[in-house]
Structures are given as C-alpha cells and as structure tokens.
Design brief:
Elements (H helix, E strand, L loop, with lengths): L2 H46 L4 H26 L4 H18 L1 H16 L7 E4 L2 E8 L3 E5 L5 E5 H5 L3 E3 L6 E2 L2 E4 L6 H12 L12 E8 L2 E7 L1 E2 L4 H19 L8 E6 L12 E6 L2
Helix pairs in contact: 1-2, 6-7
C-alpha cells in the first residue's frame, strides 16, 4: 500500500468520523429541543390536573435526568459503542459513586421524603437548617430558599430533613410580638384600651383572634405592655411596622409622658478615724 492509498483511507476514516461527530451534535441539539418540549407538555399536563407545584418540579427533574441519560446512551450507540456494556459500566460506576458519595444519596432520599411527607411546599415561608426565607424550589439534592433580604440560599435536602422545620405559612395566621413601654404615671387600662382600638384599624389585622394588649413585665421606667396583633404571614411585616407606628401615635395623641428611670441618691459617711481631708462618699440606689 503506497502513500496515496494510505492518505485516501485516512481521509475516508476522518470523513466518516467527522460525519458521525456532526450527526451526534445534530442529534444532541434536536433531542434537547424535544426533551424541553416534552417537559413543557408534562408540566402543562400536571398543571391542568392541579398537581402540587412542588411535586411537579421534583418529578420534572427526575424525568429530565432520565431522558438525558437515555440520550447519552443513544449517541454512544450511534458511534458503534456497545450500549449494553456501557449500561453495565454505568451501573457499576453508580454503585461506586454511591458508596463514595453517600451524602449525595442521602440528599436524594431526603428530597423524596420531603415530597412524600410534604412539611412545606414551594412558596411557603419557613425556617429550616438555620435558614429563614421563602421556598423557591425543591430539587433532587438541594432546596432553594430566598431570604427576606433577597439572597438565594441553597441548602442540602438531608440537612433540612434532619433538622427542625418551622413553616410559617402552614397556618392561616400568625402572631406579631411587640412591646410598648409606659411611664409610671400612665393609667395602663387607658393605654390598653387606646392601643386595642388603634390596632384594630390597621389593615390586614384579623379580629379572630383579637389583638392582645396586656402588661407583660415591669422595669425601672414603668410597666411594659405586650402588643400582639394577628395576621396572615403574607402581611406580617406590614402589620409589624404599622403596629409600631400605632403605638407611637396613640401614646403621642394621649399626651403620655416619656418613660424615664427614677433614681434616689443618699450620702453615707465612711466609718473610721475622721480626718480633715475625709469626704462623704455618695452611693446611688435605683428604685422603680
């Protein structure tokens, strides 16, 4: 075989391989478009059946991963690679990876349990694994939570499932906890009546249960009122800030004096041999 024949064989091989590469690229692009289209149809079908969005996202992630694995196997078959051997190799690799990455499988299992037991869903405001915010997505291995300061936080599913979970959106209402300081001379019954009337006028404060306004403790400045209106979680911060304004405005309109701490001072001489340079030492004691 001379050089011309070798060159022709090489060109034929490279041409055939190049065509397969182009075909594989075209297959990948077309298949990706079809997978995306299929996922959109499945999502639309789930929505029409009013399936929980949390479950929809989880199932779509599983379907997408499965279809892409099938696509990779099909492309390898297109190149003439024995897919049965590849499947066995993939299974063996999966076992090895699973043994090495036990935490990854634990996150996957925890994600499945989060879907089954449904302690929260997409859109709920929760505290889990030390993170507080709104759930935006429950994935195969992680959950996305957007905090109140608009920071996306990605938390491992196993960390969430193994920790305490507080779901602020599960119940129809929650309580806003605030304090109002009174002066010693203020009639607390008058202050309580004024605050209850004012708070009941705040938008989104519910009437059942009615807002709580009671004395919770005392300090050097006077009685302290616990001010506790109830509202839906979606309106929590609006009610929180409006209640603070209501406390300020109600006390100002009533002309209540500014709370202050009271002190009494007494002088006491130091016992011992008196000297001309001795001076009395003053001690101060606080009294409420």
């Amino acid at each position: 075989m001379n050089f011309n024949q070798i060159g022709q064989v090489a060109i034929a091989l490279l041409t055939g391989f190049g065509l397969k590469i182009l075909g594989a690229i075209a297959l990948w692009i077309v298949a990706q478009k079809l997978i995306d289209f299929a996922l959109k149809l499945v999502r639309r079908g789930f929505r029409s059946q009013h399936v929980d969005p949390t479950l929809v996202n989880y199932l779509l992630n599983i379907i997408a991963v499965t279809l892409r694995i099938i696509l990779v196997v099909a492309i390898l078959g297109f190149f003439g690679i024995e897919t049965t051997s590849f499947a066995a190799l993939l299974a063996a690799a999966g076992v090895a990876i699973g043994a090495a990455w036990g935490g990854l499988l634990a996150n996957f299992a925890a994600g499945a349990f989060l879907i089954v037991f449904n302690p929260f869903k997409v859109g709920d405001f929760i505290t889990a694994a030390g993170v507080t915010g709104t759930v935006t997505e429950i994935g195969l291995f992680t959950t996305n939570i957007t905090t109140p300061d608009n920071v996306l936080t990605i938390v491992a599913n196993n960390k969430i499932f193994s920790d305490n979970i507080q779901n602020f959106s599960a119940n129809p209402y929650r309580r806003v906890d605030l304090l109002a300081q009174l002066h010693h001379d203020v009639n607390h019954n008058d202050a309580i009546a004024r605050l209850k009337a004012r708070i009941s006028e705040i938008p989104n404060v519910i009437n059942n249960p009615a807002p709580d306004v009671e004395i919770i403790t005392f300090n050097l400045a006077g009685p302290v009122l616990a001010v506790r209106p109830y509202c839906n979680n979606d309106h929590y911060w609006q009610v929180y800030f409006d209640t603070n304004k209501a406390i300020r405005e109600a006390f100002g309109e009533a002309g209540y004096p500014i709370p202050e701490q009271r002190y009494a001072f007494s002088s006491q001489s130091v016992s011992g041999t008196p000297n001309d340079g001795d001076s009395a030492i003053s001690s101060a004691s606080m009294m409420s």
